[in-house]
């Protein structure tokens, strides 16, 4: 099978030569960067917080990584948010030069502009909205929540999506005071508005995974009352929602996301059998999902859609295909014609379109760009500006000819380390047969997608939760059933049996390095200064009292042993077998919990586990214990953890 799929991938129609290059060519490119790059010592102040961001990316290492773009009102300047460089750059579009810059000491996720005011979303725990003037001098700031990820300006107010607080803040821009905080669904990450309503794209599903339907949400906020008025489910399997925008007239809202076909065993990739890539269209008059269509072609995937924008006349939708390093342009007139055909067919409905892989094939055109990590988009007149995360560049695309005409190099990149190369490969769908998916498709930001998958490594009919990869190299064995001796073996198996790539040998060194470098993000259940809340402190005492430390000892909160799980009674489709003890580090980020995603409420799960150990716990104590479990993070490299790797297994030695 592997030989067959390798040959098929070489025949991909429309796949550029760069995208079909093997791992040796990628490594060669990295070596060329070593020769031509200039390491700008002292030109970029390293971030004070050198921990990893939500994707496991080391900030403060000298890389420039465009993650968001915003244009000035007059179209003369482009503001670029640099995630890893912890900075914002004001680029003069007439000459591509940096006119001004703002240096932060934390992760920078977004930038937005209104008149002479520039707003920046930065930080993680205790994240802030920072107000700058047009010369990028600080005018004020406000703590909004954990990892502010997107900003939408509505007159004198700014709305901020606080990703890991599951909230949206409304901030008065003049006074920099919060006027409202609205609870929304899981991981709000992207914002747009239409008709007086704010549409909040939420990254991951928020429900138990064993219910037969699971989907990321779009939440609708009435901006007059700052209240949540509706929560929309997208199609079944929708997740990794990363981009949202409104049509010029506000009739529609478009959202990019993956559609995971988790109902099927992972036996093949052809026809989008495992993951497909889509845009969902929301009718704003009824606030309902109109339909969802696939960006993929029949034999060529559109791995990992990210940013999205619409032309001024509404005739073209532009989508950043981050995994394939491409822009997909969609003709909306052709889409409408295709929808009319479906409506005339009594055997089909609009909800079927998401399963029609050839539906929009004639409405789509792809353009391949030079650099990897195509994520953010900004239209200025007839030019589309595209942030290339790993290139540290902004591509310029002429929308009339749909060709790249220029490139803005913000700063020369330093030598690509193994970790940076591994990060690039993690998000790279060109390493997958027919480019359907990347490692990130099932493990967004190296974590879990909240879905049950039936992988073949432990038999058919054994659907179970995708696991976070955080600390997988430190806590062997891996996989829920411990079927892989260590994470090094699991990475190889992922390329062979999930991405169907036979030419993986040169990839794994870099991917291993990237995953080993990931550190946990501080929990949103902590105080803003990183300390335990009073409830969590009590919960920590209960954690010891109820002997949770027996199976979950520090520092990794796992005994790295196999046990017959008490969770098995929560599902009727599994044989009687042992499970690997999961780490509790960053468990706040991996709901729903239990092997089949039965619980999305940790307090209820705590009650279940305590009862199965023959004890009882009050509701108040269960809540405190749950709060402590959800607060567990990195206990510090000061433990002296040394990782030793050989050909057989991975061991952890504590000094």
Question: Can you give a write-up of this model?
Answer:
The protein contains ten helices and 34 strands. Helix 4 packs across helix 7 and helix 9 packs across helix 10. Strand 1 and strand 2 form a beta hairpin. Strands 1-2-3-4 form a four-stranded antiparallel β-sheet, with no helix packed on it. The chain has a four-stranded antiparallel β-sheet with strand order 5-6-7-8, with no helix packed on it.
Question: Which features characterize this protein?
Answer:
4-stranded antiparallel sheet, 655 residues, alpha+beta, disordered C terminus, disordered N terminus, 10 helices, 32% strand
Strand content: 25-35%
- What profile does the largest beta sheet have? 4 strands, antiparallel
Taken from the alpha-carbon principal axes, the silhouette is globular
Number of helices: 10
Q: What's the N-to-C terminus distance?
A: 46 Å
Mean pLDDT: 89
Rg, rounded, reads: 24 Å
Number of strands: 34
Oligomer: single chain
Summarize the topology:
Layout lengths: L1 H9 L12 H14 L29 E6 L5 E6 L4 E6 L4 E7 L4 E7 L2 E6 L4 E7 L4 E8 L2 E7 L2 E6 L4 E6 L4 E7 L4 E7 L2 E6 L14 E6 L4 E7 L4 E9 L5 E9 L14 E9 L4 E7 L10 E6 L5 E6 L4 E6 H13 L19 E5 L5 E7 L2 E6 L4 E6 L4 E7 L8 H9 L12 H4 L9 E2 L10 E2 L21 H11 L10 H10 L16 H12 L16 E3 L13 E3 L21 H11 L6 H11 L11 E5 L4 E5 L1
Helix pairs in contact: 4-7, 8-10, 9-10
Give a short synopsis of this structure.
By secondary structure, the chain is α+β, with helices and mostly antiparallel strands.
């Amino acid at each position: 099978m592997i030989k067959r799929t390798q040959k098929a991938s070489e025949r991909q129609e429309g796949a550029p030569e760069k995208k079909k290059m093997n791992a040796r060519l990628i490594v060669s490119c990295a070596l060329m960067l070593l020769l031509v790059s200039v390491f700008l010592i002292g030109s970029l102040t390293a971030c004070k917080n050198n921990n990893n961001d939500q994707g496991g990316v080391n900030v403060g290492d000298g890389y420039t990584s465009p993650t968001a773009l915003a244009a000035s009102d007059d179209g003369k300047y482009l503001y670029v948010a640099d995630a890893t460089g912890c900075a914002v750059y004001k680029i003069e579009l007439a000459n591509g030069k940096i006119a001004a810059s703002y240096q932060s000491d934390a992760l920078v996720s977004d930038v937005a502009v209104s008149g002479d005011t520039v707003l920046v979303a930065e930080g993680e725990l205790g994240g802030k909205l920072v107000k700058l003037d047009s010369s990028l001098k600080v005018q004020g700031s406000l703590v909004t929540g954990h990892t502010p990820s997107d900003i939408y300006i509505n007159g004198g107010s700014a709305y901020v999506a606080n990703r890991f607080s599951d909230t949206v803040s409304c901030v008065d821009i003049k006074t920099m005071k919060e006027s409202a905080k609205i609870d929304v669904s899981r991981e709000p990450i992207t914002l747009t508005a239409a008709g007086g309503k704010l549409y909040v794209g939420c990254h991951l599903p928020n429900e138990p995974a064993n219910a037969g339907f699971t989907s990321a949400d779009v939440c609708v906020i009435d901006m007059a009352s700052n209240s949540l008025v509706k929560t929309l489910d997208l199609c079944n399997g929708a997740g990794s929602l990363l981009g949202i925008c409104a049509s010029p007239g506000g009739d529609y809202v478009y959202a990019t996301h993956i559609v995971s076909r988790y109902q099927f065993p992972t036996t093949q990739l052809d026809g989008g059998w495992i993951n497909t890539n889509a845009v969902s269209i929301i009718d704003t008059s009824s606030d309902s999902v109109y339909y969802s269509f696939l960006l993929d072609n029949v034999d060529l995937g559109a791995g990992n859609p990210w940013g999205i924008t619409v032309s001024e006349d509404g005739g073209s939708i532009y989508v950043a295909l981050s995994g394939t390093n491409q822009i997909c342009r969609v003709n909306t007139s052709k889409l409408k014609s295709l929808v009319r055909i479906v409506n005339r067919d009594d055997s089909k409905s609009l909800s079927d379109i998401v399963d029609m892989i050839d539906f929009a094939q004639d409405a789509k055109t792809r353009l391949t760009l030079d650099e990897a990590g195509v994520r953010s988009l900004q239209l200025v007149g007839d030019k589309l500006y595209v942030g290339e995360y790993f290139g540290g560049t902004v591509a310029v695309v002429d929308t009339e000819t749909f060709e790249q005409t220029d490139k803005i190099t913000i700063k020369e990149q330093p030598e690509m380390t193994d970790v940076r190369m591994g990060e690039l490969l993690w998000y790279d769908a060109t390493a997958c047969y027919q480019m359907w998916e990347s490692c990130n498709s099932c493990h967004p930001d190296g974590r879990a997608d909240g879905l049950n998958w039936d992988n073949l490594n432990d038999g058919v009919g054994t659907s179970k939760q995708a696991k976070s990869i955080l600390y997988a190299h430190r806590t062997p064995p891996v996989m829920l059933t411990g079927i892989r001796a260590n994470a090094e073996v699991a990475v190889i198996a992922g390329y062979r049996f999930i991405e169907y790539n036979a030419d993986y040998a040169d990839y794994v060194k870099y991917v291993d390095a990237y995953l080993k470098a990931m550190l946990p993000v501080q929990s949103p259940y902590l105080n803003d200064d990183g300390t335990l809340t009073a409830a969590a402190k009590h919960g920590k005492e209960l954690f010891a009292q109820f002997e949770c430390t027996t199976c979950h000892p520090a520092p990794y909160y796992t005994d790295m042993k196999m046990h017959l799980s008490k969770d098995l009674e929560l599902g009727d489709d599994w044989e009687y077998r042992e499970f690997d003890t999961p780490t509790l580090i960053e468990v706040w980020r991996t709901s729903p919990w239990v092997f089949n995603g039965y619980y999305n409420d940790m307090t209820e799960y705590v009650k279940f586990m305590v009862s199965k150990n023959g004890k009882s716990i009050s509701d108040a104590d269960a809540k405190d214990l749950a709060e402590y479990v959800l607060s567990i993070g990195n206990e510090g490299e000061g433990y002296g953890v040394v990782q030793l790797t050989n050909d057989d297994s991975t061991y952890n030695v504590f000094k």
